[in-house]
Design goal:
alpha/beta, six-stranded mixed beta sheet, 40% helix, 24% strand
Length: 468
């Protein structure tokens, strides 16, 4: 079988930061490859490099002349009133023309409801060419992956098998390393205990034998025993350090530590935050009618529905957007008391640094207090806090948004498809923040695996223009 693409010793750097080093691989017709890794590890950049055939100076990416590559990015700028899910499906269909031999998809399940996810699965099953797909969607990874490319610490490790098999392999590897580390620690303890016993034995013999020759012999024995014990201890300790480094490199992850600086008024805890009775909302005409929704302080609710069913319209009405017409009885917090974030949300000024942005959000706090708060959301080094917002990865932007929420502490937190573009570790961090948030939460999401990890009080679905 002739290969479609040959990658040899490929390296990738951005802003003097090495993302990928010396990666080699071959891609053949029919391959189903999933590219995974933490946010900011270089997944999207690698796809764009392949799509644009931007070979390095060492010409590390080789493709047959005339190879037709189709690329569908995360954000799809299209006109019209179609939902984001339908736009994604249409773009993939258009890209998946007969002549395309290699299809590159960057987070294709973002915004897709169940119906459109099934459409995407059908399209991919019947596509004859090779596919490289970036995704953090665990359910979709289990369906699609036949080969895993995982970016970790500037290396791409290739695993041939399904995503579940990949997870089992990593778990077994971790257990082996942990077991080996435990054994090494026990060996170190025994070696040190043996050295102590040897010293005690030679000291006891020294008290019994007073002659000069015996003293010299005992000193030599003690010195030899200490050196042997020292060598053994040094060798075991060296292996222990390498094992600990392997564990740290592959398994230890920094995590978000939820932190909310400004506590809400005590009176808020005994009142309702949102109340809608016999409500309707829409534009020229209502999209949703007969809305009844009541939310007390601290409650968390989940809203789902098909793409285009009116979820975003409802959220906009709750946030007092002036282009949305409302009827009925509506009560919701002032806009400054609502924390809103979606995966497509943009910072007002992305030219400023992470620290400058948080400084604007926390004007009354000292530099030390701001840095401590940033640290809770994994912005720890000077390099991380001095980054301009425009160069942040999707996951870093979400962390910064939650860092802002932690500083402002709104009464109501509205999260619209927040898990799009988030790696699996980041999803765990976001889950911790949502579950720890003391205020009220409205969560819109199609990510069923993620929703199951949230402490939801009530679930709603929008069907046929009604909130049920």
């Amino acid at each position: 079988m002739s290969q479609l693409l040959h990658i040899k010793n490929f390296s990738l750097s951005i802003n003097h930061s090495i993302l990928i080093q010396n990666f080699s691989a071959n891609i053949f017709p029919g391959d189903r490859i999933v590219l995974i890794g933490r946010n900011g590890s270089g997944k999207t950049t690698l796809l764009k490099t392949i799509a644009n055939n931007l070979t390095q100076e060492n010409r590390s990416i080789h493709a047959p002349e005339g190879l037709d590559i189709g690329f569908v990015p995360q954000q799809i700028p299209t006109e019209g009133s179609l939902s984001d899910g339908m736009k994604t499906i249409q773009c993939i269909r258009k890209t998946m023309k007969e002549s395309v031999e290699l299809l590159l998809l960057d987070e294709p399940t973002n915004y897709l409801d169940t119906e459109h996810r099934d459409m995407l699965k059908h399209l991919l099953i019947h596509y004859p060419g090779a596919i490289i797909l970036v995704s953090h969607d665990e359910e979709f990874l289990n369906f699609f992956a036949e080969q895993i490319w995982e970016i970790e610490h500037s290396k791409i490790n290739i695993f041939n098998g399904t995503y579940q098999e990949h997870l089992r392999f990593k778990k077994n590897n971790q257990e082996t390393l942990i077991s080996g580390l435990k054994s090494l620690k026990n060996q170190l303890i025994k070696t040190k205990q043996g050295a102590i016993k040897e010293q005690q034995r030679t000291s006891k013999s020294k008290r019994v034998n007073k002659k000069e020759n015996d003293k010299n012999l005992l000193a030599k024995m003690k010195d030899t025993g200490s050196k042997t014990a020292g060598k053994n201890s040094s060798k075991i300790n060296s292996i222990k350090i390498r094992t600990e480094e392997a564990l740290a490199e592959n398994f230890i992850r920094k995590e978000i530590q939820p932190n909310f600086l400004f506590k809400g008024k005590e009176s808020e805890k005994n009142k309702f935050i949102l109340s809608i009775s016999d409500g309707s909302c829409g534009y020229q005409s209502p999209i949703l009618s007969s809305i009844s929704l009541h939310l007390d302080y601290g409650e968390k609710i989940h809203i789902t529905g098909k793409n285009g069913s009116g979820k975003s319209t409802l959220l906009g009405a709750i946030m007092h957007l002036t282009n949305i017409r409302k009827e009925g009885d509506w009560y919701s917090p002032k806009l400054e008391d609502i924390g809103y974030f979606s995966s497509s949300w943009h910072f007002p000024d992305d030219t400023i640094t992470v620290y400058e942005y948080i400084a604007n959000q926390m004007p009354e706090c000292s530099l030390a207090e701001r840095r401590k708060h940033l640290n809770h959301y994994m912005f720890r080094s000077n390099r991380e806090v001095e980054k301009p917002i425009k160069v942040l990865s999707g996951g870093e932007r979400v962390r910064l948004a939650f860092c802002t929420i932690g500083a402002r502490y709104p009464q109501l937190l509205i999260l619209d498809e927040i898990t799009n573009n988030l790696d699996i570790e980041m999803k765990k961090g976001v889950r911790k923040v949502i579950n720890a948030f003391p205020g009220s939460v409205i969560l819109v999401s199609h990510d069923s695996a993620f929703i199951e990890t949230i402490n939801i009080d009530r679930r709603y679905i929008i069907e046929d223009g009604r909130l049920k």
